[in-house]
Specification:
five-stranded antiparallel β-sheet
């Protein structure tokens, strides 16, 4: 199978995974063949890509650690919590998170006893559901990073809950402030920067751990001390907040926003690497860059040699040097597809010049 961006989906493609809308309901089932009538349904989905059948790539294991179904249920649980909180003058009481914890626990379980799948986390394609889709995707990536660093289940759940609730304080801001089709003005940005404090205030009675509350309060602090709200730097920032800071930024860059399109995986990862030691903990960036693939299995790429095909293995640890299943040369299909490993020293002159997703 292979990945195709929703913008490049075509009639005749057969889905290898269900497609869900922002409410967590399936809009297209696994095995369905896309038609002209069904293509508009993809606009209701919360993903920028779909998985499709391709007999030339059937042996390529494509997929993520977290199923779309489970991710949708966690996002919907957060949405229900936010809806229930609207118009409520008080904060979230003890026991108020009871609907969110079970799906978050199931996400944690996906990472044990070992990582079975690729740590490819796409952003949110939907503008409508961004406020509850984005935090769950951030939680997933943060938990993957922490698992790679040796965290235990209980720690991952604490981290995941913190990431899921990090932006709950947005509910205290003026409606529509974050949906403007432009970058925020300075005065508006100052208002947005108040949301960590609002989040902490709303959650003070929710019986979260100290680690979770610190992560929520500090997830916009920067390694160099230029973050907010307190200007903490380096190890003054909690470990959970430092992890969430990287995950939050990556998912935001990979998401469609009113004022820009989503970045592709390698573009978002290059941004994280570029700001190592400034915005982000350099040791955590090393873990992130080595394990989160710039070119996930299944995406379509074109090489500088004119060879085009699908990534068959992301080659974790070899930054930007995946294994590619070549299907075309200069746009002409090859009779027998073949794999080339770009981490091979003899192939260093071949680079990826175009990416579909």
């Amino acid at each position: 199978m292979r990945r195709v961006s929703t913008s490049n989906a075509q009639s005749g493609m057969v889905l290898k995974a269900a497609v869900y809308d922002v409410k967590g309901c399936p809009v297209l089932e696994i095995g369905e063949t896309l038609t002209e009538a069904k293509l508009p349904l993809l606009a209701r989905s919360c993903s920028a890509e779909i998985l499709i059948e391709d007999p030339r790539t059937e042996d390529i294991p494509v997929g993520t650690l977290f199923s779309a179904d489970l991710e949708a249920k966690a996002s919907q649980a957060l949405n229900v919590l936010m809806v229930m909180q609207q118009g409520h003058t008080g904060g979230i009481p003890k026991g108020g998170l009871i609907g969110l914890v079970p799906p978050m626990n199931k996400l944690v379980s996906c990472l044990y006893p070992m990582l079975m799948g690729e740590a490819d986390i796409s952003g949110s394609y939907s503008l409508q559901g961004y406020q509850y889709i984005h935090p769950i995707k951030t939680a997933e990536l943060a938990m993957v990073m922490a698992r790679l660093a040796g965290a235990e289940k209980k720690e991952l759940l604490t981290l995941g809950i913190a990431a899921a609730l990090m932006n709950i304080g947005y509910m205290a801001l003026r409606p529509g402030l974050l949906e403007q089709p432009r970058e925020l003005e300075k005065a508006e940005w100052e208002v947005v920067k108040s949301h960590p404090g609002h989040s902490v205030e709303m959650l003070k009675d929710a019986a979260l751990t100290k680690d979770a509350m610190e992560a929520i309060a500090q997830h916009h602090e920067r390694w160099d001390g230029k973050g907010y709200p307190r200007g903490l730097k380096g190890h003054e920032i909690s470990l959970y907040a430092r992890i969430i800071g990287i995950a939050d930024t990556y998912i935001a860059l990979r998401s469609r926003r009113p004022y820009r399109k989503a970045l592709r995986p390698h573009e978002a990862i290059e941004f994280i690497i570029a700001y190592s030691g400034e915005m982000f903990d350099p040791e955590l960036v090393k873990i992130f860059a080595r394990q989160i693939p710039q070119y996930p299995a299944g995406i379509t790429v074109i090489l500088s040699s004119g060879e085009g095909g699908v990534v068959s293995a992301s080659n974790p640890g070899h930054v930007a040097r995946p294994v590619v299943r070549v299907l075309t040369v200069n746009g002409v299909p090859v009779k027998e597809p073949y794999d080339i490993d770009l981490s091979d020293p003899e192939l260093q002159r071949k680079i990826i010049v175009e990416v579909d997703v």
